[in-house]
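Question thread 4412

I'm putting together a teaching handout and wanted feedback from people who do this every day. The idea is simple: show students a protein as raw sequence, then show them the structure tokens that encode its fold, then repeat with a second protein so they can compare. Below is the first pair exactly as I plan to print it.
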Amino acid sequence: MREHAFRLYVAHHFGSLFPIFHQHVLKRHKRLPPASRASNLNTVLAAVDDYLPYLLTLEAALCGRTVNGEVIDLALKKEIDVEWRTMLTATIPGRGPFRVKGKGLDFEFCFVLHTLACVYTLRARAQLLTLYGAITPTAEQRTAIVTTATKQLLQANSIHNYLASRSAEIDASSAVLETLAQTQGGLAALALAEATLLAVLKDDPYPAVVAQDRNRNDKNWMVKPPDVPKVRAHLFARLCLAATEHAGKAEAMLSASGRIDEALIEYVINLKRTSKAKACRFFGIDADLGNETGQGIAWLTGGKKQLGFAGANDEGSKIQGLAKFKKDWTERREDKKIEKGGEWGSDAGRLEELRVIEMLEQKWNKMNDTINTQLIPHSDPLIAKMPLGRDIHLAKPFVTPSIDDDTLARMRAPPDVGEIGNENESSSDEGEKAHGGLPGIFPGSSSTASRDDSYY
């Protein structure tokens, strides 16, 4: 391997790209209205993708690693001072996130990659919003939307895992949540739980039926009723239990610091509840397919308990009174958020899963009261016998981007003029010492003078 000792235009490239990325792109995105931010995510992603290879090149050069098969000789004269807004730390009500300062490329590297992971998560969220639009997507379109969102979440999971493994290299004295291993590990588990639920959503017909029923602009029901094909209920239940385990891991790791924003912790708790309720629903569907409708209704009651809409003494009863009024009001508020395209989905699909359970409960109770007439057992013993979850996604390592050879060649620069002068002076001093005292030389003159120094 050939070693090339060359100097990078560090002050030029790093000093010009950082303000463009940090000040202009992110601030412009922050000032946009919530409904317009989803369309601007591609701009933020392009800025991060352009900035990250330069940052990784500098970091590899300072650590002595090779870049495109070459060893870069780069000396660090001064640690850079960077400043970022921390979005995970709990703040005082009425005040926005505060800025934190850090030193070194590692601190900058962590926040840039954390921003990249957040962009992938927000892009997945924007993709899923199209499932609840005015036009109901077809089955093929729904599969494509969910598949794209799953890829985005798995990419975010790989970045968070990479940051968790690199957190030991960052100065721990700053105590910033985004730089801690437990924070990044919790966010990685959260992204994996969401991706696991999307694997179930891709082949789950019931949320699509409920969304189509609540869509005022949809007229397909006039032509034909929605198709509800048979599902692999037991497999989907195991996948939902795996998502529950990942969400529980995320809750434990994020709550360990004690300074995480409560809204994030509440979202993780709702996701864990929704995942377990989905598992109960699929176990109920599996029981109904086996002509055990009574046991299926018990599973649905257990799902409502997991969502927090049924108590220990509410077996077989409906939501009434103030609880029903609160649920209806929360549903209307969530529907308005979806219509505006703003801050929707903070309940992690909890209300949507409740609608699916109530739809199946109404259907199965009617069948059980008129045809089957089976006893409905208690739900607690069924939930206690739940099996372990089954993972469907494997965590893939994050592949760091690199600069191409042409860009790396353009970043080479000649030595400074001052350093050339110092080298000439040192070489002339050595020559004078080597040839000093020769006879016939005028005292004080140099014996290494060449014809190039002559005027003619």
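The second pair follows. I'd like the answer to focus on this one:
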Amino acid sequence: MDLQDPILRGKYPAKDHCAKVATYLRSKHSIGTDSILYLEGQKTRLLEDNDDQRRSFFYLSGCALPDCYLTYHISSSTLTLFIPPLDPDSVIWSGLPLLPQDALKEYDIDVCLTTSDLPSHLSQFTTQNPKPTIYLKDEPSNPDLTSTIADLPIDASVLHSAIDECRVTKDAYEIALLRHANAISTRAHTAVLRALPTAKNEQDLEATFIASCISSGAKNQAYHGIFGSGENAATLHYQHNDQPLSGRKNILVDAGAEWSCYCSDVTRTMPLSGKFDEQSRAIYGIVEEMQQAAFSLLKAGVMWEDLHLRAHEVAIAGLLKLGILRNGTAEELLKERISVAFFPHGLGHYLGLDTHDTGGKADYADKDTMFRYLRIRGGVPEGSV
């Protein structure tokens, strides 16, 4: 089944993202138009290390290759990607790498050079443009670059936050990537549900989920999945995923595939017997009511704290009805933050290149336990996910 949106047949809109970040920098920090944005991609690492592309680099390039660099000249809107040069010795081990002419066809860039061209490229640019400011996200690791820009104005204080803010709102291409990642995850969760009658251990279901994702083309998971049966599900970030299922009622599956560096995050609770018992169904129903109450309030500009508060109000009403909470009115229980014992985490988070995507402005020092672990604070802008 083809899950892809037709928009994904085109190039990832890297230049639009560069322009978005440049516009943000001009509006918030009054940067000069002859400035350059410079980012480095992830370095090649050993198997035991995370080899995922640096998310900010991907956001401005659409390139997932390791050992790359990019520059974006603001006044000319020129995006240049630097890829590793051809190493004849490595071809026998890894095959032919992507060549510059191929990169120009694949990515939304203007120029593609090799990484060995980076110092001369910047030297030529600085000769033509007197004292341009180089905006860095991180300190450069390329020693040749460090010497090349040693006498230039360098600013490493604003680009990181600018990219984080711009990543909050998503364009149509990004939304299509997120939908595709979630479609793959939906199929994987369904595969887990179908595997319940024969599964013996949590790891059986984790294997089913991952196998389904890989068969759909998603080789990477957005995060380490949680497959917690029985009381294990009460540990928010349960990691073991290796306990027997015998004698347990339910399993919580919190897992999501990654597609082209974009993440999904789906959590479902499933009855191991195929049907919830009366107690489990009652709690499940409260959670459904909390979700629907939040959905009904969700719109551009809504305060995330208001959604979170409403979810707690619904939880308290449901737990009072079941008799789990007693000796107090709903208002009294809310004031005393009793529901935090059942709902200690935040209502949700932004989703994008990271599972817990950037720009949420969390305040983990908040003295109010109800809001301390919210990953989003304040108004939710239109176009955010």
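Top answer:
Good format. For the second protein you could add a caption like this: The mean pLDDT is 93. The longest strand covers residues 78-83.
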